[in-house]
Amino acid sequence: MHGLHLIAELYDCRCDPPLLGDARALQELCLAVCSTPGLTPVGLLFHQFGSALQAAGATGVVVLAESHLAVHTWPEEKAVTLDLYVCNFSQDNSSAARVACQRLIAAFAPSRLLQRELERGVPALAAAALSGGGSD
Amino acid sequence: MHGLHLIAELYDCRCDPPLLGDARALQELCLAVCSTPGLTPVGLLFHQFGSALQAAGATGVVVLAESHLAVHTWPEEKAVTLDLYVCNFSQDNSSAARVACQRLIAAFAPSRLLQRELERGVPALAAAALSGGGSD
User: Is B34 a catalytic residue?
Assistant: First the structure.
């Protein structure tokens, strides 16, 4: 489960509007970007909010053998959030993930950008869980 | 797009083994947890790695109107990663997300746990993007 989680928030995207509003266009981009060595799509789900004509946004998830890509668009704000998490079970897929994330960012062409990276699955960072797993 | 992203890594989970190995059991749990005010499932995708009998793990995503839940299991390590991202477009869904995340954690019953929270969609944190969006 050890791996890398890339997180990005994109603002004032200058891409063609369908990429922000049309789930089919978003799916085409995401699948193209995930068709790279180190990323292995095993399923996908894209949801259209409103309609492509009304541009109420879209959400897409590509389930990877290495974990997942999730993309949410807000056309009214020309904004996008990206999450790309790859585990490094059999090999280090970090470079593939970074390349894919940069390809997505380039496609949306944001004017402003926030990128964060989280290392996932580092057992040494975990603390003892509360009894019952912290239910409330 | 402003919202809260809850991230958790669970180790030495003491739940029944099917919850870690069987995509159907995982789906049942995730849908139950997401059936709460503040979370609105609009689609789901669960993938079985190997077979339920061989317990090679499962990945599940529930696409929410508020963003998404993603769960990955590693039965051989009795480990789970959770991501629950909710945007607060029309109302603050942070409390609903925290309750759902704690219900998931309680169901997996980890012995050790790492939880992190990220605030998403804070434009003031974004910097000017490189020309072309940072393509490489």
Answer: no
Give the C-alpha separation, A61 to B62, whole Å.
9
User: Rg of chain A's alpha carbons, rounded to an integer?
Assistant: 16
Name the CA dihedral angle for B64, A83, B126, B42, rounded to a multiple of 10 degrees: -10
In this complex, do B127 and A114 lie within 8 Å of one another by their Cβ atoms?
A: yes
A135: chain B residues, CB-CB within 8 Å: 102-103, 105-106
Q: Which CATH superfamily is domain A3-114 in?
A: S-adenosylmethionine decarboxylase (3.60.90.10)
Contacts of A50 (CB under 8 A, 6+ apart): A56, A57
**CATH of span B3-121:** 3.60.90.10
pTM: 0.93
Tens of pLDDT, residue by residue over B17-47, are 999 999 999 999 999 999 988 999 999 999 9
CA distances from A101 to A57, A73, B1, B39, B99 (A): 20, 15, 19, 27, 31
Of A20, A10, A8, nearest in space to A84 by CA: A8
Q: pLDDT tens digit string along A11-31?
A: 999 999 999 999 999 999 999
What are the residue ranges spanned by the domains of chain B? 3-121
B87 is catalytic: yes
Is B72 a residue of the active site?
Answer: yes
Q: Which among B1, B5, B102 has the least Cβ separation from residue A74?
A: B1
Number of CB pairs, chain A paired with chain B, less than 8 A apart: 175
